[in-house]
Structure formats: structure tokens, C-alpha cells
Amino acid sequence: MVNNGFQGRGVTRLTPDIYRVPIEELTTFGGTVADDVISRDGAVILPKGTKIVLLGDSLLQVLKRLEDEGIDHLHVMRSDEVTSDALDSFVESVVSSNMIIDSQIARTSIREVKRLFESLRHNKLTPELVGPVMEMARELVEQILRRPKVLFSVARVRQWDEYTFIHSFNTAAIAGFLVNRMDPRLVEKAVLGGLLHDLGKAKIPLEILNKPGPLTDSEFQVIKTHPVVGEELAVKVGIDDPDILSIIREHHERWSGIGYPDGKSGESIGFLARVVAVADSFDAMTAERSYKAPIHYRSAVKNILTDSGTHFDPKVSRVLLLAFGLYPPGSVVELSDGSVGVVVSSGGEDLMRPVVLVKVAPDGSIVREPKLLDLKRSREGICKYLGWEGKRAL
């Protein structure tokens, strides 16, 4: 809880990362709330871990509420690295946060993957081809490690013939995020493997690869050759790391043994390949294609959970679920008292009780001063899922 006993109006540094900040300075100071901010009646006004920048247009209303409660300052963390406890209490919104992977790194990564594929398509097989992709993988890893809650800073497809390259970047970013939560030592391999997982598609005829509609059975059989072809290409350009080769060959294997090319099952499938399988499927479901509309994140997570234990490693599926919660940011929910709000963070381990920005009062009136309600600290609960607000969660 914030200690309101301090006096004085200036910013004071309390520890190397935590500052005592007057509320009137929050709009320019930014940072992350370091302790729960509690009202006089015990309600959570701002949960620990709240990113000031994520309050957006609501910040002025929050400041007014703090002033009305007699709170004249907050303890704020200012650091690229924050405690896991703080992060878990307020997951950055994957659809509204400005703290995304650097756009130039994203563009360069996609361009280098595209260049590699085009070279392989024209039979230019040299070890030098992989160097720039490996360098971009390292830069992408740095972004993921610096902001471990930046979940899916994904580029959406604008040209159908670029889908494979953008999808490779997205899969790498998602896989790196998941592995960072499971075994941080393997993040770089996960990212590089994600960038290269569809390498074999460089040898798939473009009329099949970019077909604007469902594939025939014979066309799908051609597509199913890409893991083996990709592994062969990777070896030819000098990739010999067994974990990377496993990702390329095994990312379409399935937990129950119904995948391809080898019909492996369970833990006989490489760990990183099992992670990339989840990342690959998640991005494919949430991407727009000429023959299908994207589904939103909640539905994609639900689909992966449905296939957990058959298609996907249950442990990896759970990491994805914990990252989003049952109600990912942007979910519109009705609470047990009849009020309506928008989920702005997951519930951490308690998937049923996220942090909600209440916008509609129990009597149906619009809340003039929307408040953040941490359901883990409230008697209220979610009784109904009403939909998804889209790209703004605040």
C-alpha cells in the first residue's frame, strides 16, 4: 500500500528504481506503479504494476480520484526491468500498448527473412545467407528480454505474398516470449528457429503457397513437404544446431502423434518445436488472409486450449493462457453486480479474476470516472463475457 505520510511536492528518489512522485507530476514522469494504491474504503484504485502510459485518456480521471481520496503522491518504478510480481499484476495490453518491439527491427527482420527465402528459391545456397537473419534474431531477443511483457508485437499482413515472411517474424516473437517464461537460456534459439521454421516453403510453388483459398488434398500434400525440405535447406546453408533443426522439421508434429512428417508424439518432439507449434498456430489464427478473417486473441487461446493434450503440449498451452488469462485485454465483461467493464490485464495465476476498467454502473449509467477494479481484491466476479472491444483496451 502507498504510504501517504511523506510531505513535500518534488520527486524524491527512494531506491535506485523507485521514486516518490507527486500526482501532478505523473503525466510527465510516467513509469510503473510500485505499490497498490488503496482508497479510504479499501478499494484498489491503481494496482501494483500499472503502467502509467497505459492509462491513456483515463489518466486525468484517475488523478482526480486520487486527489479526492487525499492521496498526493505515488511510489513509481522507473526501470527497463521491473519485478516479476509487478509485471504479473498488470500484463501490458497486447493490442493497445505503445511499448512494442522496435518497428525498424520488425521491418528489417521481415526483409531479411524474405531475402533468404528468395535466394533459396533461386538455388543460391551459401552460408552467408543466414548471417543477417541470425543477427536480427539476436536483436529481437534483446527486445523481448528488455520488455518481457511485450507479448505479440506482430505486424499484420497487408500483401498476401508477404504472409510467409511476416508470419515468420510473428512466430519468432511469440515463441521467444513463451520460452522466456519457461527457460530463458533458450530464447535465442527459439527466436532464430521461429524465423526459420517455414524455410522449406521457399521450395513450394508460389501458386500453391499464395493460393487465395483453401488447398486441395494434393496441394496440401505438397505443403506438407516443407518441414523436411526446410531441414535439408538449413543443413545446406550451414545450420547444424540440433534444436534449430528440430524446430524446422518438427513444428507440425502434434502431441498425440497425428502430426507430420514423422508422426512423433509427446516429449519425443523437441521442446522448442513444441513451443513453436503453439506460436505458429496462434499467429495463423489471428492473421488475416484473403480467404479468411482473423479471429481475436481470446478465441485463438480457446482453440489452443481445446487442442491441448492432442495437438499441443499442455505445459506450453498453459503458459500462453497465463499470459492472456481467460479474459485477455480488450474483453468486455459483465460483473456480478451488473456493472460492465473492459479487461486491461490478465489475472496472473488467477485466470478468473483480471483487472477490469469499469465503464458502466450497475444501474446501466455511464461511469463518469471509470475506475480500475482488481477482481482478486474484490467481492465482485465476472458473470458474462460480452465480446471484445478491439484494438483499444482503455
TrEMBL record:
All residue ranges annotated as the HD-GYP domain in the record: 134-336
A Pfam entry, by short name: HD_5
Superkingdom to which the source organism belongs: Bacteria
Domain HD: 164-285
PANTHER family: CYCLIC DI-GMP PHOSPHODIESTERASE PA4108, CYCLIC DI-GMP PHOSPHODIESTERASE PA4108-RELATED
Record's protein name: Metal dependent phosphohydrolase
Source taxonomy: Bacteria, Thermotogati, Synergistota, Synergistia, Synergistales
